[in-house]
């Protein structure tokens, strides 16, 4: 989870993902034991402090789990309703967790893996590939570079450079802010394949507005129009394949990964 997020990210994304089915119980525990234990207060302060930092990750709040599980267990034990329906509660929790594991482990965000499997079977020998995608959103070096052959030229795989200390050198940020301007200054003729998230070239819609309310690049989203595809066409690239990535996507990613191939 590299990048910047909304101050509310931990409340609406981080906590539900980390605590999953325990999220309602977490809310109940904080409500019931807020002034009876130091742990609920510490949890609130921790979330507030981390919410003030622009860079957010799930792992930052993992340390809260071992502290809160005993508190949540105690809240569950002393509640008469839960005690009467303990078996039903455990069964429901197991089923929901099982569905979550299957969805997150097999379906969710599988596009980068499927895209690399597709590239591994390419008829072009050692193709030159441009992953026109956000920071750390593709697993090319681990699932394509070393898996296909050890003789692949590392320079044939192009990624957007991410520099968190020098904004001027951050290619991913420049691409997010103005995709059309960025690729207009690139020599795309050097590549055989170009991959990018479907959100990059889709016109602005009410659905993209809802998904982008927390994005730092919201004001510049109007620049992501179909003109992006015209630039690819001018460099002899045509649409080749669309691969499913994720139903719920983040910021500028998208539901699919589009693969364009250069015509000879």
UniProtKB/TrEMBL annotation:
Keyword Ligase attached: no
Record EC number: 2.4.1.-
Membrane-spanning residues: 6-27, 34-53, 89-107
Keyword presence, Glycosyltransferase: yes
Swiss-Prot/TrEMBL GO biological process terms: GPI anchor biosynthetic process
Highest taxon above the source species: Eukaryota
Intracellular or extracellular location(s): Endoplasmic reticulum membrane
PANTHER family named in the record: GLYCOSYLTRANSFERASE (PTHR22760), GPI MANNOSYLTRANSFERASE 3 (PTHR22760:SF4)
Membrane topology label: Multi-pass membrane protein
Record protein name field: Mannosyltransferase
Similarity remark: Belongs to the glycosyltransferase 22 family.
Keywords attached to this entry: Endoplasmic reticulum, Glycosyltransferase, Membrane, Transferase, Transmembrane, Transmembrane helix
GO cellular component, one term: endoplasmic reticulum membrane
Pfam families: Glyco_transf_22
MF (Gene Ontology): alpha-1,2-mannosyltransferase activity
């Amino acid at each position: 989870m590299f990048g910047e997020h909304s101050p509310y990210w931990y409340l609406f994304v981080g906590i539900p993902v980390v605590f999953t089915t325990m999220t309602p119980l977490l809310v109940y525990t904080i409500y019931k034991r807020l002034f009876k234990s130091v742990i609920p207060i510490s949890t609130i302060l921790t979330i507030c402090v981390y919410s003030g930092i622009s860079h957010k990750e799930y792992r930052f709040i993992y340390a809260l789990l071992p502290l809160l599980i005993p508190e949540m267990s105690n809240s569950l034990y002393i509640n008469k309703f839960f005690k009467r329906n303990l078996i039903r509660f455990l069964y429901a929790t197991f089923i929901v967790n099982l569905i979550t594991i299957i969805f997150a482990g097999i379906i969710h965000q599988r596009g980068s893996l499927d895209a690399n499997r597709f590239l591994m079977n390419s008829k072009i020998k050692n193709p030159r590939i441009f992953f026109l995608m956000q920071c750390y959103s593709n697993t090319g070096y681990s699932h394509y570079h070393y898996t296909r052959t050890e003789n692949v030229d590392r320079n044939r795989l192009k990624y957007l450079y991410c520099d968190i200390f020098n904004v001027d050198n951050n290619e991913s940020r420049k691409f997010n802010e103005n995709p059309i301007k960025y690729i207009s200054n690139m020599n795309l003729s050097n590549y055989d394949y170009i991959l990018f998230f479907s959100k990059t070239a889709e016109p602005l819609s009410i659905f993209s507005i809802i998904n982008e309310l927390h994005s730092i690049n919201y004001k510049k989203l109007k620049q992501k129009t179909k003109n992006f595809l015209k630039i690819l066409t001018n460099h002899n690239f045509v649409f080749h394949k669309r691969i499913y990535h994720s139903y719920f996507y983040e910021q500028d990613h998208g539901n699919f990964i589009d693969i364009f191939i250069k015509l000879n």
